[in-house]
Amino acid sequence: MKILVLLLLFFGFVYGDNILTVATYNVENLFDLENDGYEYDEYVPNSFSEWNEKNYKIKLQNISKVIKDINPDIIAIEEIESLQALKDLKFTLQRNGLYYQYYQIIDKKNTTTKIALLSKIPFVYAKELSVTSSLSQRNILEAKFLINNRELYLFANHWKAKSSPESQRIVSAKALRNRIEEIGYDKNIILLGDFNSDYEEYIKFERKRKLNDTNGKTGINHVLKSINQIQKADRTKYEEGSFYNLWYDTDEENRYSYIFKNQKEAMDNILISQSLLGKKGFYYQNRTIGSFKPNYLFNGNQIYRWQMTTKRPIKHQGKGFSDHLPVVAKFVVTN
Known about the structure:
alpha+beta, single chain, 335 residues, 21% helix, 17 strands, Deoxyribonuclease I, Chain A, seven-stranded mixed sheet, six-stranded mixed sheet
């Protein structure tokens, strides 16, 4: 059965135009049940918090339901602890009818959580892009694909959180930019993940002065040159070497993946190189960007995150999903 599915996928991509679905999802602390010494206190296995086999399996099932309902061809996953957790997620998805043969996780640093990829399409390669030697900065996961004899470079990111100033995110942006300069701006490139940056971060962080230690410059807008691109994808032009943030290709009220103090924010982003804005070969399908937001991912007006008690000792309640919504976009791959 697996061979038949793979053959159908292969011949579909070779002999006909296809839709490639790409997604990113911060799954909010998907920890395994191994005590490695790097866990947050509330995720130490079989401790006071009741992070145990029962709650772990519920978390895996809930995250798997979301991914299965999206059914992406390639998905970047943020905040997953380990290769074991990734394999357990992959196995749970497979039991629920969604098979990912190819997978990769960054593992050169003992960071508390990591970045991973699940893919139905084989990698030409998948490797870790170093940001800094410090454990405080996550590396970036770089992968190359060959689809209908067309190259695609994908970079999965999880930048420094908003508890840190913008200079910390600029470090990640510059590492990413340096690598892209080696590849070439004319290539098909997708940048995605949890950037901890709004698509208009340079405007919004003016209200958060403690973050602005860079004289108004931001990683996502200035280093990646995604500024002043306010038009829909089929009606805008860009300066050389700039990236287009797909959030501009949907209505403003839909541009969010996170809710903080009742304010909608777009912490998760998908940016693309200019070559993917054409209408031949391999290109972004207009108006397909959006957060995945079925009713079950909400609890009232809030995202239905993984639930823990608010009183100490903190305990897992065995329900909920993540504090982020997945973000999805589609691409056309022609024969």
